[in-house]
Amino acid sequence: MKLKDGFKALFGTTIFGLVRELRMVNARRLLLDEKLQVNEVAEKVGCQHPHHFAVAFRRRFGILPGTLKS
To answer: Which domain of life is it from (predicted)?
Structure first.
């Protein structure tokens, strides 16, 4: 509990929140730079279901991942 509280005080987010943020930033990079399909990106960032990935991506960036590809 001490480690968790200290991490949040130092970084302003939880460990899980930081991991989620890094995954979403990496996903955005893969969509834009690598030109991968949404389902491929979802798999690469560790999401089992592309729909769950799309919801998380939209929650973070405000747009669906497929709109980046347009």
So the answer is: Bacteria
Range of the domain at 14: 2-68
Q: Mean pLDDT, the chain, as a whole number?
A: 93
Looking at the structure of the chain, the number of domains it has is: 1
Which helix (H) or strand (E) segment holds residue 35: the answer is: none
The alpha-carbon radius of gyration of the chain (Å, integer) is 14
The pLDDT, as a whole number, for residue 70 is 57
3-state secondary structure 9-56: HHHCCCHHHHHHHHHHHHHHHHHHHHCCCHHHHHHHCCCCCHHHHHHH
Q: How far apart are CA 5 and CA 12, in angstroms?
A: 10
CB atoms within 10 A of CB 54: 18
In this prediction, residues 13-42 reach a mean pLDDT of 94
Residue type, 54: A
